[in-house]
Design brief:
The complex is a heterodimer of chains A (about 240) and B (about 250).
Chain A lengths: L1 E9 L6 H12 L12 E7 L5 H16 L5 E9 L35 H6 L9 H12 L12 H6 L2 H25 L4 E5 L2 E6 L8 H11 L3 E5 L4
Antiparallel strand pairs in A: 1-2, 1-3, 4-5, 4-6
Helix pairs in contact in A: 4-6
Chain B lengths: L1 E6 L6 H11 L3 E6 L10 E4 L20 H10 L4 E4 L1 H8 L6 E3 L7 E9 L15 E8 L3 E3 L2 H9 L3 E6 L18 E5 L5 E4 L16 H9 L21
Parallel strand pairs in B: 1-2, 1-3, 3-4, 4-11
Antiparallel strand pairs in B: 5-8, 6-7, 6-9, 9-10, 10-11
The chains are: A alpha+beta (about 240), B alpha/beta (about 250).
Chain lengths: ~240, ~250
């Protein structure tokens, strides 16, 4: 895979009115040492390795002349390089969710249906015990208010699993209240019916509820990442 | 006369053109989707204004590859009139059917207002209802209407009477102040060498009824519908217009 970087520039004899306007604006910002501004375009193409060397160069020239530039007013320069090493990944999701204003944790303000994997709930049918005092405190804090509380996305999976069922539900609610905007954005960007998030990153998503992940799969991701796996679906509003 | 009005994804002035042709001029027209390759039933073709393909990359850059454009070229090659308005003009330039290109307005603003145009040459299909020096008033609505062509080509174009309209003041003086967008030579409309394709940035279809402020656009429409014998035979052979696979 090769990356072709193409700089499209106005022919030097042409007046660049946009550049002149930007120059004035720079001067108004006191960057008076700038003498001239010209504005062009930067285009990158990812190209299969089917062609290389002069043949590839020829094809790229043709692309520039046919479509990517207007030869009447524009010149171009092509730079060829190798693609970066990351293996065919899809778009990177933002690791840090958008912070939302803190809201008191009351279930009535929650407008969404969160689904707690039934298997996980069943798995910890044991009475709420065996929590270290600090974890207990943390769990209580979560259920009362999320002001100054730890981010549900950062919660350790073992801690989560040790919580009683209702508190695990509260953690889910907390995630929605705290990160609802980001969650909705992830759903919208992917046109997804569900997204599976671990540690504040979308790991998987699906276009319909038919592909909703199994409890075992969700659990596996949680254990592998030592972080609570959340599956969010489109709000019913 | 039967007009074909081409519609690209993003075109938005086709219905105004249809209204003029049908309701004001009493002729007929059909809207033609840009994938069609059959223009055989038409006597004239309009490429209307709008934002074909969202003006992505450059205005008209992608529309020029639409299937209909080859047929438009053949259509004009048969001597039949093609008029490109605003975005239509931009597409014709990108396709190379007209010389030059339309650049971003000099002052970077989208301009929507009436302008005055001076008729430079009337010995053609599009302006023979006017006298040279006539001042026409019609609206421009564009952000990229600054006409540019290299100096050598410009000289050729002027020698061949291809500059049809220039921006002017109310009394017909072609001045820098009357130039709304920085077009070279105040050029508002040009024609190809064969005198079959006319491109202009102003909108004659929006100046065909007094209620809209001017009816000067009607001169152009009337010119088109009254074919002018210019010493060239308009061939009746339309078989080339039905490209295979249309």
């Amino acid at each position: 895979m090769a990356i072709a970087e193409i700089h499209v520039v106005l022919k030097p004899t042409l007046l660049d009115a946009q550049g002149a306007t930007v120059l004035k604006a720079l001067h108004q910002l006191n960057h008076t040492q700038v003498r001239n501004v010209r504005i062009g375009k930067y285009i990158t193409l990812e190209v299969d390795d089917a062609l290389a060397g002069p043949a590839l160069q020829q094809q790229l020239d043709l692309m520039c002349q046919q479509l990517l530039t207007n030869p009447v007013i524009e010149d171009y320069e092509i730079t060829l390089g190798a693609a970066p090493a990351t293996a065919g990944a899809t778009a990177v999701t933002p690791p840090l969710p958008i912070a939302e204003p803190m809201v008191a944790a009351t279930t009535t303000t929650n407008t969404v249906t969160t689904t707690t994997p039934a298997g996980l709930m069943a798995a910890s049918g044991a009475p709420p015990s065996a929590l270290a005092p600090s974890e207990q405190l943390a769990a209580e804090q979560i259920s009362r208010s999320d002001v100054g509380t730890p981010d549900p996305f950062a919660m350790d999976y073992d801690t989560y699993q040790a919580l009683p069922a209702n508190e695990r539900l509260a953690v889910q609610d907390m995630a929605w209240q705290r990160h609802g905007t980001w969650i909705r954005q992830q759903l919208a960007d992917r046109r997804a019916a569900w997204v599976l998030c671990v540690g504040g990153q979308v790991m998987e998503s699906g276009a319909s509820l038919d592909s909703y992940p199994s409890d075992a799969h969700i659990d596996q991701l949680g254990r592998a990442n030592h972080s609570v796996p959340y599956v969010f679906t489109q709000p019913s509003t | 006369m039967h007009f074909g009005i081409i519609v690209f994804p993003g075109t938005n002035c086709e219905r105004d053109c249809a209204h003029v042709v049908r309701d004001l001029m009493g002729h007929t027209c059909t809207l033609v989707w840009h994938e069609s390759t059959d223009l055989s039933m038409f006597d004239a073709v309009i490429l209307p204004g709008g934002f074909a393909y969202g003006d992505y990359l450059r205005t008209g850059a992608i529309a020029k590859f639409s299937p209909v454009m080859d047929t438009v070229e053949l259509f004009a090659g048969l001597g039949k009139p093609v008029i490109g308005i605003c975005n239509g003009f931009q597409i014709l330039c990108e396709a190379g059917f007209l010389p030059g290109t339309l650049r971003r307005n000099e002052h970077q603003h989208f301009i929507c207002r009436n302008v005055h145009l001076r008729v430079e040459h009337n010995d053609n299909q599009f302006l023979h209802q006017n006298a040279i020096g006539d001042v026409l008033t019609m609206p421009i609505r564009h952000g990229e209407g600054s006409y540019y062509v290299d100096p050598d080509t410009l000289v050729d174009m002027e020698a061949r009477n291809q500059i049809l309209l220039r921006y002017c003041d109310a009394t017909g003086n072609v001045t820098p102040e009357a130039n709304p967008n920085g077009s070279v030579g105040n050029i508002a409309g040009v024609m190809n060498e064969a005198s079959t394709i006319f491109g202009l940035m102003p909108h004659p279809e929006a100046a065909s009824e007094i209620i809209l402020g001017s009816s000067d656009g009607l001169y152009i429409w009337r010119s088109i519908v009254s074919p002018l014998a210019l010493g060239r035979a308009v061939t009746e052979d339309t078989s080339l217009l039905n490209l295979p696979g249309s």
